[in-house]
Amino acid sequence: MRTDIEKWDYFELVLEAETPGNPFLDVDFSVVFSLGHRCLPVAGFYDGDLRFLARFMPDTEGEWQYMTASNIPALDGVSGSFTCVPPSAGNRGPVRVIDSYHFAYADGSAYHPVGTTCYVWNHQGDALEEETLATLASAPFNKIRMCVFPKRYVYNNNEPPLYPFEGERSSPWDPALLNNYRYPETPDFWDFERFNPAYFQHLEKRILQLRDMNIEVDLIIFHPYDYGAWGFDKMPAEVNDRYLRYLVARVAALRNIWWSFANEFDLMADHSLADWDRYFKLVQQQDPYDHLRSNHNARRFYDHGKPWVTHCSIQRHDMTQIPRWLNEYKKPVIVDECGYEGDIGNAFGSLSAEEMVARHWLGFATGGYVGHGECYEHDDDVLWWSKGGKLYGECPARIAFLREIIEAVPPPGLFPLSTDREVLDMLVDRPYNGITVGHNGVDYLLIYYWMHQLKYARLNLPQDKRYRIDIIDTWHMTIIEAENAATGSVQIKLPRRNYIAVRVERAH
Amino acid sequence: MRTDIEKWDYFELVLEAETPGNPFLDVDFSVVFSLGHRCLPVAGFYDGDLRFLARFMPDTEGEWQYMTASNIPALDGVSGSFTCVPPSAGNRGPVRVIDSYHFAYADGSAYHPVGTTCYVWNHQGDALEEETLATLASAPFNKIRMCVFPKRYVYNNNEPPLYPFEGERSSPWDPALLNNYRYPETPDFWDFERFNPAYFQHLEKRILQLRDMNIEVDLIIFHPYDYGAWGFDKMPAEVNDRYLRYLVARVAALRNIWWSFANEFDLMADHSLADWDRYFKLVQQQDPYDHLRSNHNARRFYDHGKPWVTHCSIQRHDMTQIPRWLNEYKKPVIVDECGYEGDIGNAFGSLSAEEMVARHWLGFATGGYVGHGECYEHDDDVLWWSKGGKLYGECPARIAFLREIIEAVPPPGLFPLSTDREVLDMLVDRPYNGITVGHNGVDYLLIYYWMHQLKYARLNLPQDKRYRIDIIDTWHMTIIEAENAATGSVQIKLPRRNYIAVRVERAH
User: What is the pLDDT of residue A388?
Assistant: First the structure.
């Protein structure tokens, strides 16, 4: 029987074996996949019901061989092969960093992250989860931040349908703990030596559905929003490491995975900086595909300069700092959390749509990336930012408009205006104080004026080149062509409004 | 002959004398004013045409005596008296700092600075200057920043009608110098040993007109916008000191004077920090009335903690820092320059009215003060920010609205929310990230939501007090009473818009 697996999909080997002891702890099971002289060792995992699985995402077409190794005879020395065939339409492989500051799919096609956040949409039961998927199908997002673990927080008082470990709470949760950052004990009501495979199967199902919608998953491995509800934020070190190995073995073969080690890592008092470094190194060592890795902050940044960090995942409100971070870390900057459109009492979730759209433009127009979220209060406590469901805001349409503009920038994307002399010389009025400029050499400029209402955009275009100049109203989503073959000294009359941008593009 | 001078107006002694040598340099002339055993020495000055003047602003009603002293017999030993009578309506005396962070007139009545900037309106000739005064008469401003010296800058290429010294330029000014911060020589085309009294008489006339309109004058003593046009920014040290003594002798008796030692002192490369300290000390020593003193920055602050600084005069764009500065310097904070409403190519002068009004609210609502300016481009180069003339923007009406609200705050004004436990406890949702709260104990709260659109304002009012709660739309200038006798736990539905404020005021 010939098995065909398309490139960047995954091959799954399933073996059954009765094992003595605890199959999660006492069984070594791994598989080496090989193509010619290239060998890739992959960790297998126990999936319950006597089933041992190993998953592998091939990145090269051809006939791959495999051979298992185990301390259990039934799982040892099993060999076979499959054929890796060309990817189908829409399958462009995992996302990588290119040109220091940007991203692309493995097939080389452009990828500009336009993300949203629904932290625990995958813990809400099928009806709401299916509604979230339907909403995402018509939303502009190609990336989502979501948690492995359930969440306890304001607007998040429900129990998830499944838990990641066997066992159950011995006592009801005390809501008073929601006001404490520290609460007493490491939980003793889970069997931390036995994962619940159904929990991870459900997670994988949702990740695969997102994969097939071309949505990257920024998978949040740890988070502090637990408050003693389950204690997944303060598990013993060996459990954390076992959890990381199990998670990587299960989901690394899903091409749309990014590893987000935490949401607000610096609020997790039970994890030291040395712990975070260890998690990064462990995942980097276990992940055969080198998926993207970062760590999201509350107040203080994780050091994005560390070699195992592939890009900066940032929570901040001031997008004008993006050029500074790009320069400091020499890596792509994604401000996953700049605040959310909404109307809740927490200031993070009450931004007006105008402000939220402005933060997106400020970030994208300087060569960074900005993430979305929405917090409109509803009686059923279903807020997009956490549980998914429906989108109510005015941002998504405008982010779709922005995404079209960003995807039309010459590859790999925009760079912040810094000391590029040729580009600086094109600007008669030097921008500062919130007027931002992204460029792609002298072929493309995007000037975003934010709350500035200049009467004229004045440009000094190279005399030997011609440019199309568009005036973009980022809020009303209009693009008006002002010039189509401009050269030399140009003065463009601008509308006297907030949120105007000017696009200057080489006309060939 | 009995002379009556109202309190905080000034008495002017005029003596004539022919003197050998240079009357600006070679004549010592001073006057001691006394009331009972209280003696106040005041420097006189030469006003041209053989006239020597001394001005004195009495702060106490009664019969004041004076006696002159001079190295010129005709000016020596002249004595006399005048009667200081009660002030007329509108004359509330000079402005002082009270309660560390606020201001009041000398008569104790409240003064909240609501300033504007017309740097060199007084160098534009009578027609435009009279138009500026007419505009100010119906504008909401009770303070103006203006320069002693003329200004050369973009939109400022005209020569002033008068110069402060005798002499004239020996060569035409080169416009290319406008692009240089440094230019060569100390000017040699002025007779720095001879002031031009007509120049200062004109300045005084304008200051007095403003005084009579109840507009304080934040008089800018030095500024860097000269670019070799006149060289008043790089005069020799002894000329600077003589200029300071002459200026103080002439105008200190005008009660609406504030000393602003510079605009953007840190751009003046020819003045060291030690120079600025010396200027402060010299003026403090010469000024019998201890008028307010500060020094305005471009990038780096002058140290407002120095003992001779009475308040912080600040250029910054981020008003959310005001509570930090108040706490750091323990002095009133006036952000004289937060950017200007306008449409010019310079980012400082292209803020939308929405943004400019928001910066005012952010500043005032945290116990600071924010200044206005306007930069709409016109063919005649008359921009309010520099030359005065007419106001075109949408801010002034909204600043008038804000001023009414600020003037209705219980004295001495608002304080930023910091660690005041009683006030913190009134707020169910703790403000941050641009939501600002000013308070006056538990009797008055002003919450400004900026770009946050909370569905509800939630308050926890003291059970033993009743409050009126108003919803203020700071842009549309509406005030809607939501409650008139609220107490305890209160939830106020807010409109879902930018720029909303809530006022919570003790109902007595």
Answer: 98
